[in-house]
């Protein structure tokens, strides 16, 4: 496993209390693994990791104090309070604190029922453009032999980036990023021929029951 840092923050894009407009970021050390090296066939895989959110002082039970805007504890898991609607920002840095990947994940949980949880998964594939076959490159029309040249001239997609965020709403008006953040990120930069295709997938069904500590 290799050491990395994750800087996690959020920016509100809807109405909310001032303390949640841009709450303090949290920095979390984590380790990531990849598959490759001696005895491995093919290119090295992207890094994969699970970032555990830190525990903090959970003041949600104390109504005489302002709600915390940093890391908190919900049962036995760490959490980070966020506005109901906004954009989560996760910066992955190497051990020299150099940023190597920025995840920007917009979300809208304004209709999230109390006592529920959900997750959001953002995936990005790298698409390698069509590679002309030998016949196309030579400008000649050659007969195609069945079983030969399959896949030539077609684009290739590989998962390069992924982030999964877990959300819960234990009380009315309180939404948290909680538990852990799962990430996949590349071990190299894109080259000039590659482009990225992304999609966002929510849990299905959208809401499920939440219990403290789960």
From TrEMBL:
Q: Which InterPro entries match?
A: Atos-like_C, Atos-like_cons_dom, ATOS_Transcription_Regulators
Q: Name one Pfam family in it.
A: Chromosome_seg
SMART domains linked: DUF4210 (SM01177)
Domain (Atos-like conserved) spans 1-48
Q: What is this protein called?
A: Atos-like conserved domain-containing protein
Organism phylogeny:
Eukaryota, Fungi, Dikarya, Ascomycota, Pezizomycotina
């Amino acid at each position: 496993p290799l050491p990395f840092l994750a800087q996690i923050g959020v920016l509100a894009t809807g109405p909310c209390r001032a303390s949640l407009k841009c709450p303090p970021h949290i920095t979390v050390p984590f380790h990531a693994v990849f598959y490759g090296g001696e005895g491995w066939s093919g290119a090295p895989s992207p890094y994969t990791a699970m970032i555990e959110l830190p525990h903090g002082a959970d003041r949600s039970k104390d109504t005489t104090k302002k709600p915390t805007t940093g890391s908190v504890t919900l049962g036995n898991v760490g959490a980070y309070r966020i506005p109901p609607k906004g954009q989560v920002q996760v910066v992955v840095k190497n051990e020299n604190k150099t940023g190597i990947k920025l995840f920007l994940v917009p979300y809208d949980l304004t209709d999230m029922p109390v006592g529920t949880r959900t997750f959001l998964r953002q995936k990005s594939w790298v698409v390698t453009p069509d590679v002309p076959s030998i016949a196309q490159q030579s400008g000649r029309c050659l007969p195609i032999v069945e079983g030969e040249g399959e896949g030539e001239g077609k684009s290739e997609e590989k998962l390069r980036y992924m982030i999964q965020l877990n959300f819960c709403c234990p009380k009315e008006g309180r939404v948290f990023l909680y538990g852990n953040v799962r990430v996949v990120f590349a071990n190299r930069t894109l080259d000039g021929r590659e482009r990225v295709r992304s999609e966002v997938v929510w849990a299905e069904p959208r809401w499920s029951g939440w219990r403290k500590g789960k």
